[in-house]
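Crash report, auto-generated. Payload:
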Amino acid sequence: MSVSKRSTIIVEHLRRQQMLDNLAKGRRLDGRAFDEQRPLEIEVDVIKKANGSARVKLGNSEVIAGVKVETGEPFEGLEDKGALIVSGEVLPIASPHVEPGPPDEETVELARVVDRGIRESEMVDLGKLVLVPGKIVYTIFVDCSIVNADGNLFDATSYAAVSAILTAKIPILEMKDDKVVDTGSTMPMPVTTVPVSITQVRIGDAILVDPASEEEGCMDARITIDTTDEGYCALQKGFTGGFSPDQIRKAAETARIKGEQVRAKIKEATGFGR
Amino acid sequence: MNDIRRRYVIPGDKIAEGNYRPLMNVVKSGNALYATRIGIAETGRDGAKVIPLSGVYIPRVNDLVIGKITDHTSLSWEVDINSCFSAHLPASDVFGRDFSPARDDMSKHLAVGDMITARVAAFDRTRDPMLTLQDRDLGKIPRGELLKISPTRVPRLIGKRGSMIQTIEQATQTRVLIGQNGIVVVTGRTPEGVEMAVKAIRMVEEEAHTANLTQRIKVLLNVPDEPQGAPAASNEAQKTAEPAAAPADPAEGELEVESEK
Amino acid sequence: MTQTRNLIDENGKRTDGRTIDELRQVKITVGTVKNADGSAFIEFGKNKIVAAVYGPREVHPKHLAQSDRCVLRCRYHMSPFSTDTRKNPAPSRREVEISKVMREALEPAVMLEDYPRAAIDVFVEVLQSDGGSRCAGITAASVALADAGINMRDIVAACAAGKVDDKIVLDINDTEDKEGGADMPVAYMPTLGQITLMQLDGRLSPEQFNECLDKALVGCKMVYDIQRQALMQKYFGNETEVKEEQ
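Recovered output after restart:
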C-alpha cells in the first residue's frame, strides 16, 4: 500500500525562500543554470571481481554498479532472449534517512525506472545471449549500490549501470554434453545503443535539470526521461504535483539535448564505440 | 599559562601520567590519562583535556541553539537542533499559560521548516531537550544565509571573548548568529558582505586546529594588522569602538575554548 | 580445511608474492561518505570496504533505547557484485554472524555510557571482497567511529594470521583462506591490550596456536599504525605537532 507522506527532507524556510527568490531571478542556490548538471565523474573497472563495473559521482551523489554474468532459464514469453535484471539498493551508509532492511517504495521505483530505461532502449542485444533457446540463457545482473545520496539518484544510478554494462566482458560459454562450459575467453557485451536518463524537477514555474537534494526537498513534481540517439525510450513522472503539456514537451526537448552531452561523456569514460 | 603542553591525539593516546585532573574527553586508567577523541590535547596545571575536532552536538542547559521546526503535536513543536535528540518546544512557552489546543493555531505561529533561535531549558539523561523562547532575541528567524558547521568548531568561531566573530562581523558588515549546535545564520547589508563572511566562517571551520588563525582571517578580510586607534575598516560606520578586539595573548586565545568555562 | 597444493614456494613466497610476515597493501581514507557523521574507505589487499557511522542519534523504534547507555548497531553487508559469484542482496547467515561479532569487537572501545538513550549505527559495506574482510571491516569501522567524534577508549585494529603449508603466516588472503590450513582473525585494542574479536577455523597444535596469536597481534599493531596515520592526515594534514603561537 502506498501512503502519502511528508518528504524526509525538510528544507528550512530560510533556504526555501532564498531558493525561490533566486529562481525568480533565473539562478539556482548552487549557482547553476536551470539546465546545468552538477559535475559528473565516471570511473570504470573499479570492482575487479565483477564482469563490468563503474563508479559515478554526480555532485555528491555516488553510485557503484557491478555487472555479474550467470546462466539460467529465460523469462517466460522471452524464451529466445537472455535475461537482464537491474536492481539497486540505497545503502544505509548513504544518508541518515535510510533504514537497513527490505527496499521501500522509493527504492523499488528507483531500481525499476533505471531498469526500464536500459531495457526499453534495447541497449543490450539479448538475442545474442542465448545458449539453448527456451532452456538456458545468459543472465545479466546489474546491481547498483548507492553509497552517498544527495539528490537525483535516478540519473546517477542509471549512468553507473549503463557504464558498467558498456565495460562488461562476458565469459564465452558453450554447451558440452548438456552442460555449460566456460571456454576461458570473453566477449564484450553486445550493445546496440547508449540510453541516457535526464531527470528534471518543477519548483513553481522553474524546471531544473539534475536536482540536488535540497531542490528535491522543495519540488512540486519530477520527471525522468530516457533517450537514445534516435529518440525517447522510457519516462517516469513522479511526485505529487503536475506538469502542463507544454512543460512536458519542453522537458522532453531538454532531455534530448542534455542526453546527447551525457552520452558523449559516458562513451568517453567507457571507451565505447572507439 | 606557558606551562601548557599541546599535542595532536587520537582516541587511546596517553596524554599525561601522574596526578593530573581529568577535565574533558579523557579517561583515567591506572595512573595515566588517555584521550577519547581526535583533537588537541592540553595538559597544564589545571589538568588534562582534549579539545575535540569532530562530533555531534550534545545539548547542555542554557545553550543557545538554532533549530528547525520538523513537526508539531497539539501540545508542542518538535525541533531539529542538529543533535542526537530532537528537542521539544512546549506550546505553552509561546502562547502562555492559557494555551488551548482548540483555539490557538500552532502552525500559524511556527510552521514546519521555520528556523528559531532558542535556549535549552532542560535536558538530562532521562528526557529529550526542552527549549524555551522566553528571553531577549529568541524566536523565529525571519531571514539570513544558513550554514552548518561542526559544533566542535563553534568555540573557535566565537574566539576568545568573541574576538573572532567580531573581526568577521566588523570587516564584512554582517551580523552572525551562532548556535552552540553548529547552525549559523548570517545577515548583512550587502550580498557581497554575506558571501565574504561565509567564506571566513568556512575557513575557520577547516583550519580550526591551526595556529595564527585570527591573523589569517584578518588577511582574508583585508583587516589592517595593527589597528592604531583607527577603525579596522575605513568604510565602517559606527560599531568600531574596539577595533578588531585582538586577544592580548593569542597563544592563549587561539586554542582556548570560550564556552567551556 | 584440506590443502591440495603448495601455497608457499621454495623461496618462501606466498601466492601473492608476500613473505610469511608481510601484510598486504593497506590504505585507509577518512571521511569518504559525505552524508555520514564519520566514515572511512579501506583497501586491504583486494578488499574494498566502506564504513560509515551515524550517531549518536535517536533510536527508532523508541523502545529499543536503553536508559543508561547507548545502543550500538552494526551491519556488515556485501554488495551483490563483491564476490566471485553474485551474492544475493538479502543478508546471509554469514553476514548476520559477522555483524554480531563485529559489533562485539567494537563495543568495548566505544564509551556507550556517555550517550544514554541514543543509538550509534555502524554500517560496513563490502564493495569487493578478499580474504579477511571482517578484519578490514572492523578496522575501517573503528576509524569511522573516531572520525564521528564518538568517545572511545581506544582504536580497534584487526588482522588475521593463519596456517598455510604447515607454516604460520600473517594476514591470510582469499586463496589461503579457501585452501590453507587455518584462519585466525583477531581484533585488538593496542593501548588497552585487549583482544575484542577472535575466531579460529582450522586445526593448530598448541605451539602453532601461540605462534598464530602472536603473529596476528603483530599484524594488528601494523594495522593500527596505518589507522593512526590516516586519522592524523585527515585532521592535521602534514602537521604532526602543534605549533605554539608567538
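Post-recovery validation: Strands of chain C lie at 26-30, 38-44, 47-58, 71-78, 118-128, 157-164, 167-170, 182-189, 194-198, 201-202.
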